[in-house]
Hints:
The protein has 292 residues and is mainly alpha-helical. Helices cover 59% and strands 0% of the residues.
Amino acid sequence: MVDVEIAFNRSAVLRCLDQLEPFSPVLRRLLATLADGDDSISVAEIGNLIEKDTLIAGQVLGAANSALYNRGSEIVSVRRAVARLGVGVTRNLLLALSVNRIWSSVRTPASWSMLRFNAHSLATAITADLLSSRLPTEYPEGAFVAGLFHDIGHLLIATMLDEQYDRLFEVLEKTPNLRCEVERELLGYDHADLSSDAIAHWNLPLQVQRAVGFHERPQLDESPLTKGRLRLSQIVCAADRYVDSHGISLWDGDRDHDSNPLEIVGANEEEANIYPELKAQFDMVQASLRMR
């Protein structure tokens, strides 16, 4: 299919992950609630953890007092801020802020845009979360984290290949409908496989691993499914395509890739009506990031 020779060692990916800045104690505790349930942690416990990190505390307070969540009175207490946001929103916000900080230290090749990657990952996470709240979804609590990490395999490939990635990037840019096939031909696996490896390495729930691993080909996902519900991989796939269609993509020219990116979950943009809230949440997180 392609005339490019690239050397890549999949086993080296986990070593690359181990070199990243570790998740903070507060984020690790909040991620544990994905498996244990939001009721496994109290607002007081979250508040105590957040108060130990001045930067995180400021960002959480900023989010709680933003136009999106402000209810007419300013909050100056971290615990009250968490109570206003809720455990799920607080977890998603801290996850988005934390991984942005972690990725900022990663060395990437010239053709890689960390700005695009962060924007696409965040928008996909928010969209997946919105879709899972509107549509009957298997394991909806994992939608945000699955959306946020669905393309980390792309980042790992770029990081591991370094200068070689520029050649792969040229090929991927020219083959928008065959990118996974190109990756599998050149590397032996695709970015979704590596994204799933990362999720497993971080001991996140199996449901999230599978959603990430099958987000490019949800029709192959055979995860257990309750009748009448959508698989999480379908939600992430739809969210990925949806934000691409709005120009928030890793690649140039992906805006017109799908005429109805939500078709895979049996909806269309008018029915879902998620863009206004996607933009509001996206802008809120971006504003929190500027508080650093």
